[in-house]
Each structure stands twice: as C-alpha cells, then as structure tokens.
Amino acid sequence: MHQQLLKLVSESVTLPDNDKALCELYFEPVLFPKNRVIEHEGQMPKYLYFIVSGYVRLFHYNENGDEVTTHINCPPGFITSYFNFINQTKSNENLECITECELLRITKTNLDKLTQQSIIFKDFSISVFQQSLAYNDNRSKELATLTAEERYRKLMKDYPQILQNVPLQYIASFLGMNPKSLSRIRKEIIK
Predict the structure, then answer these.
(1) What is the dihedral of CA 166, 94, 77, 159, to 10 degrees?
(2) Whole-angstrom distance, CA of residue 154 vs CA of residue 150
(3) What is the per-residue pLDDT for 190?
(4) Distance separating alpha carbons of residues 53 and 104, to the nearest angstrom
(5) Where are the beta strands (DSSP E) in 33-136?
(6) Which residues have CB under 8 Å from 141's CB, separation 6+?
(7) What does CATH list as the number for 2-145?
(8) 3-class DSSP state for residue 54?
(9) Integer Cα distance of 2 and 181 in angstroms
(10) Residue 94 and residue 68: Cα distance in Å, rounded?
(11) Distance in angstroms (rounded) separating the CA atoms of residues 38 and 40
(12) pLDDT below 50 — which residues of the chain?
C-alpha cells in the first residue's frame, strides 16, 4: 500500500531507500468499510490520512442538524481536518469513508519524527499543507463567485471520478446547494 505514496513523493524528488523505509515505518496501512466515520467532531484529529483507494469526506452539522460536506477527496490525496491536526485542537468536523477505503495514516507525533529524520518528507509535508491552504482558499472564492451550475461544471471537468463514486447528496452539499437544485442542473446539462 505504501507504493502509491512513495510514487507520489518520487514524482518531485529521488527518494533514497532509508526515506522509503521511514515512510513504511511511520505510515500505518488501514482498511475501512463504506460509511465508516473514522474521525469524530469534538475530538482532536488523531491522524493524517493518505488515500490509496476510495473516497473520503469531511463534514459537519449545521444549526439545523443537516450534514454539510466541506471536502471530498479521492486517491492519491491527503485528508484530515488540517488546522486541528497541526495544532492538535478539537475539530468540529467528522471524517467519513464514503466508499470502502484503503488508507495510510500517520499520527502527528510520527509525522514530526518523520519530518525530523527526512528532509525530503519535511519538504513534501510542507508542500502538502501549502496545497491544502491554497485549495481551501480557492474553494472559498469559488463558492462566493461561481454560480451553482459553474461549480458543478468545474467539478465535472476537474474531478469526474467523484461524480461516479460519491452519492449526489454529498456532492450537492459540497457544491453549496440542495440535492433538488443539483438534479435540476444535471438535467439542464444533459439536454
């Protein structure tokens, strides 16, 4: 299971054998069934997850008790409640496997050890967190400036596999609309 992570890191740098061994030492492989919540709101996120296969989402409950999906991720990618993971504070989000998932996970303590022992993983870790910040900033701008149809078309273009593997209610929530609006938009696009 570590091969996908090692391949991703190796796309930008040559990875020495000792760094590969550190990766395999600190990243624990885990399998979770569909619909399993693996991190719960009100608790500190225990792990940073690398998605080998499957789809994972972050969500919280709004004031009406409705689920609001804030992030959907697919392989290869990292996911956690980043701010809370880094600062080891309680999160208001849940992390759920939408499908059956093969994941690699690492604790904050082990991530710190890995980045102290490997300059390559330190630089890679910084890059991952920078990409997460940029993604979240861009997503906020898109939610504020794009129409619902434009957001859906962008998702179709950028992440078509999500549309095939994630239930529509999660996609609608992620795009900031209700399922009926998403159905209407999809019907219009099909015409």
Answers:
(1) 30
(2) 6
(3) 81
(4) 10
(5) 37-39, 47-53, 56-61, 67-73, 77-79, 94-97, 101-107
(6) none
(7) 2.60.120.10
(8) coil
(9) 40
(10) 10
(11) 7
(12) none
pLDDT the model gives residue 135: 87
Q: Is 86 helix (H, G, I), strand (E, B) or coil?
A: helix
Nearest to 169 by CA among 68, 30, 18, 32: 68
**Partners of 50 in the beta sheet?**
78, 104
Question: CA–CA separation, 59 vs 66, rounded Å?
Answer: 10
- In this structure, the number of other CB atoms found within 10 A of the CB of residue 56 comes to 27
- Sequential DSSP letters for 22-40: HHHHHPEEEEE-TT-EEE-
Report residue 74 as tokens.
Answer: 């697919």
Rg (CA), the chain: 17
Residue 98, pLDDT score: 97
